[in-house]
Amino acid sequence: MKKFKKSLLAIAASSVMSLSAYAGEVEVLHWWTSGGEAKSVAVLKELLEKQGHTWKDFAVAGGGGESAMTVLKSRAVSGNPPSAAQIKGLDIQEWGELGFLTDLDKVAEENKWSSLMPEIVSKVMKYDDQYVAVPVNVHRVNWLWVNPEIFKKAGAKVPTTWAEFKDAAEKIKKAGFVPLAHGGQAWQDATVFESVALGIGGPEFFRKAFVEHDMKTLQSDKMVEVFEVFKSLKQYMDKDAPGRDWNIATSMVIKGEAAMQLMGDWAKGEFAAAGKKPGKDYLCVAAPGTQNSFTFNIDSFAMFNVKDPENKKAQAALAKTILEPEFQEVFNLNKGSIPVRLGMNMEKFDSCAKDSMNSFVSTSKSGGLVPSMAHGMSTTSYIQGAIFDVVSNYFNSDKITAKEAAQKLAKAVKASI
Amino acid sequence: MQVVVAKTKKKPLDFIADQIPKLVLSPTILMTIVFIYGYVIWTGVLSFTKSSFLPNYKFAGTLQYEKLFENERWGVAVDNLFIFGGLFILICLALGIFMAILLDQRIRAEGAIRTVFLYPMALSFIVTGTAWKWILNPGLGLERLVKDMGFENFTFDWLINSDMAIYTLVIAAVWQSSGFVMALFLAGLRSIDSSIIKAAQIDGASLPKIYWRIILPSLRPVFFSAFIILCHIAIKSFDLVKALTNGGPGYSTDLPATFMYAFSFTRGQIGLGSASAMMMLAGVLAILIPYLYSELRGTRNA
């Protein structure tokens, strides 16, 4: 059956090819299947088809892309990878090391990519100093989403440090609301943990711990303090948090059941879908203590080796189109993220996105721009997994002290390097 | 005489008739060899390599096994398997026998009741897990219900308590499988020769004594096959965990199967995942080999 389908596709593709002799085909693997995301992909498809190329959609549903990656691996092993796949962070390095990715330097040079994005971003897109992937958008992870209505009712102030957070949370708890909405899944625990670490330790500490994996930093007193503050947040969450999906936690803030949520700016999509306006119905502020830092999570497309010269042209066109202002604007308006391209006109974006863009630009100069550990930007999947295990287990168990957790963290990271 | 004639005449057809069973079976045998034993061997090979993201064949000795046994999460998964498996098998067997004995008392509407008990088996573990996730959720299910009835201090938060969450798996799994065990035992009870029981009754034995001394001992084979099936369900348990707790809170309800999946397919550590899969296979064999041995020896004696 599959073979039959494949041959049908091949016939269809060849008939299309014969119609437009110069057009190549790009097959794009992605997992953007939800409403806003699908719309964003359609934009890319349209822009590419305008240039005379054929777009073959290869969407694999499932948030986080676990199933998409499984499909990609089997396609790659059988020698038939798509032209482009949604791969991000250090996974790009892994694929590059295995020799699957193509060199995009020509496109990059022609379009001056290096001047378009901060160096720390282009570093993620390069393997062996050659561009192999194209960034699509930037998410800021260290956001605190606030329901101002509840803050007013409780007489609390929006916190800017973790000490202030505690005061505010106590007041909100007394007023009968859930102070912090959370979903107890490993990656969400890690997202909160990462914001706490950045708020308490600052970007230098963050980089030493999660990028360089410095053993001393991982076991330092500062890390113990991070663990302590992280655990103290548990008392401000409701009991049903374990296993909850992040968007349900966001809807608690939207509905006025919970006052805050620590989550990346994809949460904005939920607010927007509920018809809420930023600055009025909800506030987006930097997570306590991280005003001058920016934890980034970048979606990107890695380009695979393709043989057919026409398809190669189409692939280059895809890479070029992704970084062009037109696509960057429409796509990111739909996705809730900000353009990865510097110097974009941000007029159509909302205040949260503008804030995000400003701090993206300023922190890329000041050194406050750090890769997100929870979203696979700073470490390989093994080390990330090891950190997730320790963080999540500590958060959910009452038997481990903060000191033990820091030691376990160092041990787990060491074992998986 | 006639037979011999027929045989010599239909020789070509005979040849085909001889070959047909082999022909019919060969695809199955081939597929079994490739897709079951072939992949078992492949997994075994991978567990001795440095495979990470994709399979590769750089020999790594027993490194993956060493890493596996150092991994705290694997320890938790194995402990959980013993807790979950032990309780699940024990409770299922006890409950199954008990229900079968009650049903065996020639009651009215037995067929309907049997269907009610057996029905959970028709559901997949994913459905069971999801349903119990709602029932056990403190803010949604049982706890809320009892609280709403006026018992303000009632708490039942096992699902979100990392020490107790493993027992919620036992509850859901027992709910699903005990009816099946009951059906097995009921069939066993029905197959017992009634004349033995009648003879015991004539001798003046009480009903509990008949069950304890005669019926239960003669159910030994049924007991054994139920045990083996339950063992397999326990070791293979994956979908139930995925749906009910997804290994959480933290990784407190991880089982070897979920561990294997997480490390092979989402963490990009195929070597380590293969090592854990081989350990699971070893666990299954440890149960299966003594069973096969006793079975085969048993038939020879009989």
Automatic annotation (TrEMBL), chain A:
Keywords from the UniProt entry: Signal, Transport
Subcellular compartments: Periplasm
Name this protein carries in UniProt: Probable sugar-binding periplasmic protein
Keyword Phosphoprotein in annotation: no
Origin species: Spartinivicinus poritis
UniProt lineage: Bacteria, Pseudomonadati, Pseudomonadota, Gammaproteobacteria, Oceanospirillales
Major localisation: periplasm
Coiled-coil residue spans: none
Keyword Transport: yes
PANTHER family: ARABINOSE-BINDING PROTEIN-RELATED, BINDING PROTEIN COMPONENT OF ABC SUGAR TRANSPORTER-RELATED
A Pfam entry, by short name: SBP_bac_1
UniProtKB/TrEMBL annotation, chain B:
Membrane topology according to the record: Multi-pass membrane protein
Localization per Swiss-Prot or TrEMBL: Cell membrane
Alphabetic keyword roster: Cell membrane, Membrane, Transmembrane, Transmembrane helix, Transport
Residue spans crossing the bilayer: 20-42, 81-103, 115-135, 164-189, 210-235, 270-293
InterPro entries: ABC_transporter_permease, MetI-like, MetI-like_sf
Domain named ABC transmembrane type-1: residues: 78-293
CDD domains linked: TM_PBP2
Main location: membrane
PANTHER family: ABC TRANSPORTER PERMEASE PROTEIN
Family listed: Belongs to the binding-protein-dependent transport system permease family.
Name of the molecule in the record: Sugar ABC transporter permease
